[in-house]
Input
Amino acid sequence: MRGFLLRLAGSLPALVAVIIVTFVLTRVLPGDTATYFAGPTASAESIAQIKAELGLDRPLPEQFWSYVQALAHGDLGMSLTTGQPVLTDILARLPASAELTLTGLLIAMLIAIPLGIIAAVKQGSLADHACRVIVTAGVSLPVFFTGLLLVYVFYFLLGWSPAPLGRLDAFASPPPPVTGFYLIDTALVGDGETWRGAATQLILPAATLALFALAPIARIARASMLAVLGAEFIRTARASGLSSRTIILTYALRNALLPVVTTLGMVFSFLLGANVLVEKVFAWPGIGSYAVEALIASDGAPVQGFVLTMAILYVLLNLGIDLVNRALDPRARHA
Output
C-alpha cells in the first residue's frame, strides 16, 4: 500500500509539469486568439480590446497565476469557439472518446492476446505467420490511412457500413444520458434499434484503433509467452508428466500476462494520441476533435483542458495497472 501511495504522490510533479508546459506552448504557438475572433477586418483598437477582455495583455507570469488559481477551483476556463466552460464541454464529449477508445482496446485485446499466445506455442504455424503480418501492418500503416481505407472499402465500395458522420445517423435520437456510453445507455432503456445504430457507427472507428493497438499487444504477448515457455519451472512441469494444456493454461499463461498488462498503459497512451486523428476521420464528437477545432481557432483554454485531462487519465490508468499487477503477481504486493 505504501508503494502505491508513493506512486500516486510521484505522479503529481508530472501533472504540474504538464500544466506548465501546456500553458507556455499555447502562448508561444503561432496564431493570435484576439485577432482570430476579431475577424480579418477588425481594427487594432478592437483587437486590443479583446486582448484586454481575455487578459492576454497581461504579463505571462500573471496570466499563469490566474490560470493556476482557476484550476484550484476546478475552472478550466471558457471556450471561445463554443461559448461554454471548458469543463462542461469536456464532460459532455469525454464519454464519446472513452467509448471509442475502450472498445478499440477491448477488440485489440480479444484478438491480440490469444493470437500472440498461440503464435508462441505453435511457432512456424499459420497463426505465427498471421501474428507477424498483423504486427507489421499495425506498425506500418498510419492510423488515419487505416481509417480512410476502411471507410472507402466498407462504406463506399461495399455499402456495409453507415456514413462516417458521428455516433448516430441523422434520423436517430441519442438515448437518455446515464453513463454517456451509447451502447450502455440504449441497453438500459431497452432501445434495440438505437443500440444497433450506435454499434454500427462504432465498428469502423473502433476497428481502426484496434488494428493500431493489435501490433504492440500481440508482439508482447508472443515474446512473453516464449520467455515463460523456456523457463525452468515449465521444463520441470513437463518432466513431471503434466499435459501441455495444463502447463500452458495453469502455469505459463498467468506469468505471460504480466508484461502484457504492463504494456496496456503504453498502448492506451498511444490510443489517446491516435484517437484525435480517428475522431476527425469519422466525425466523432469526442474531446480529440474538440481540441483540434480549438487549436485551429487559436483557442488556448480547450487545448489546455484537453491535455490536462489526458494526463490525468493516463496517471489513473497506470495506477490501475499497478493494482492489476499486484493481483496477478504476489511478489508485487510487498513492493
About this structure: The CA atoms of residues 171 and 207 lie 24 Å apart. The chain is about 75% helix and 0% strand. The chain has one domain: 93-334. The longest helix spans residues 192-229.
